[in-house]
TrEMBL record:
N-terminal signal peptide: none
PROSITE patterns: SHSP
Pfam families registered for this protein in UniProt: HSP20 (PF00011)
Domain (SHSP) ranges: 22-128
Protein name listed in UniProt: Hsp20/alpha crystallin family protein
Source organism per UniProt: Pontibacter akesuensis
Similarity field: Belongs to the small heat shock protein (HSP20) family.
Amino acid sequence: MKLIKDKEFLRNIAHQIDLLNTLGGGVSETYVDVEKYKKGAVINVWAASVNPESFKVVLNNNQLTLFSVLQSDENPEMAAPMFNRTFMLPPQVDLKRIEAVYEDGQLQVKLPYHEDTGKFREIEIKQL
């Protein structure tokens, strides 16, 4: 039995099979996990054979949408949605400090809480 040794060829074939499988109604499993901590939360997304460039993270008010699109290298107009998930963020998330990191096949979206969340504060009453 002779194995194909050209890794670039195998990557291209795998990408084309993924694209055709998705367009043909196949399923691409994406795993999403939300971890909550005292200082914030982290959304972890694992999607098999999805390039980091295929992921998009969009924030609109307090709505965070994560999605990925699989595009053909030969025909840029041929694309298929792979994954789409929307999260309604709670008010304690500091929207200005959200960041996304892709490492080792995993997308991590870090949702830090406001630093003063949970601290006791007395509100001064003004007299008019």
